[in-house]
Design a protein that fits this description.
- The strands form six sheets. This protein has a six-stranded mixed beta sheet, sandwiched between helices.
- It has 505 residues and is α/β, with parallel strands linked by helices.
- The N and C termini lie far apart (58 Å).
- β7 and β8 form a beta hairpin.
- It folds into three domains: 235 residues, P-loop containing nucleotide triphosphate hydrolases (Rossmann fold), CATH 3.40.50; 173 residues, Rossmann fold (3-Layer(aba) Sandwich), CATH 3.40.50.300; 66 residues, no CATH class.
Amino acid sequence: MNKLLSLKQICKSFGPVEVLKNVDFSLERGEVRALLGANGAGKSTLIKIIGGVISQSSGEIELNGQPAAIVSPIDAQRKGISIIHQELSVIPQLTVLENFFLGREMTKNGVLDKKGMIQRYNEICTEMGFDIPWRKRVRELSIAKRQMVEIMKAVSCDSELIIMDEPTTSLTEHEKHNLFKIIRDLKTKNKTVVYISHMLEEVFEVCDNVTVMLGGEIVGNYPIEELNEHRIAELMAGETLAVGHEKHVSHADYRKGPVLEVRDLTHEGKFKDVSFDLYPGEILGFAGLVGAGRSEIVRSIFGADPYTGGEILLDGKPRAVHSPADAIKNGIGLIPEDRKTQGLVLKQEIYKNATILSLDAMKKKHMLNKKKELDYTAKAVDQLTIQVSDLQNRVQSLSGGNQQKIVVAKWLGKKLRVLIFDEPTKGIDVRAKEDIFATAEQFASKGVAVIFISSDLEEVLRVSDRIVMVHNGRLVKIRNNEDLTVADLMNDILVKQPLKDGGAK
């Protein structure tokens, strides 16, 4: 192997905040390198410099042994660098085909060669084992399908270096294995891959070497065979960690009547005849494959999407929940799957995002009072251990884990009966995940009934009192979380027979 890329003494500051400190980072041709670190460690900043999104404050870059200035994403692509960003960059209004070839459209005799583009797109789909119609507009696709489009686009550019930032967060197991096959194929072609993931089992499956970052610095570079998951967690945290996770403590009170009753809830084409009960202080896990209908069910309960049949009862009384405003009025909150577009206003300040649902409480003499907003947010930051340098910075300046905690902070000022966590740990590190689990349990300890959705079955087992298995828009089983294993959940998820009652307690 020979060196493809070298970064020497790279520093990057945003105002007074130094986010990268004298980083030395190099890549060999044909290697798959994991780039790991807790949220805020500097990973995203580093790959944005490599990808030409931002420039370093100081330091040098060499590409193929020669000094290089990467001045824009287009320049990076011309230099053989492609990035699949965690924040997907597809354009929802365009078709899949238009997104796929955006900026590199094929022409024939000076005219757009649509037939050639369709043929090439279908070839890539076949090679990668993905099946996404080229005519569809991206806004009609699930987050998982959008992610696949980004992956296919990056790989099809035939770049020498492909950087994948959390590429599997919404993929099914089958789709993940397709991606791992693609990575191995790239390696045989002497392509270089940088793989960023908080799923450490994936790192051990596809990576040759590991670079760990902490606090804007490189902790070290290691061959994968010298590490295990526990050692990586120690390196990421900068300390020795106790083995295992905290055990879930149940706060469920089954002596009282259910807070929420869902009866035969149906949205034709998405889910059908969904029935379950949710009790005070209970954490009810939803397990299922991507596309099973979990998010669609809870979005209808929250009023974000309609339902065409069935009913929702709160404290034993039927309630009309046809909009998020109805849900909030009835004490139902939602932490959505896509925090970037549904949970936050990225260009607004941190404190404005944290207080957006409690504006009436932030008023003084009928006017919004900034001191009240800042005080509320400061308390939330302390309660949720959010890493913030200035509450008046834009929320998009925060790491993924801290952004997610700001989404949670919005609900601290509301009188909730039910709080729904929809994929709350997507793209955040191990320590931030434990903070999210602890937050769910804190709400439960106050009597709030919690629904917790995760594609990671270990997480569902970690946090839930009972677990609902969802398959193809149907509830197939509800089980008490007693000595269950991931294998038990997978077996139940794949069962085709729908459940017809509210499940055991």
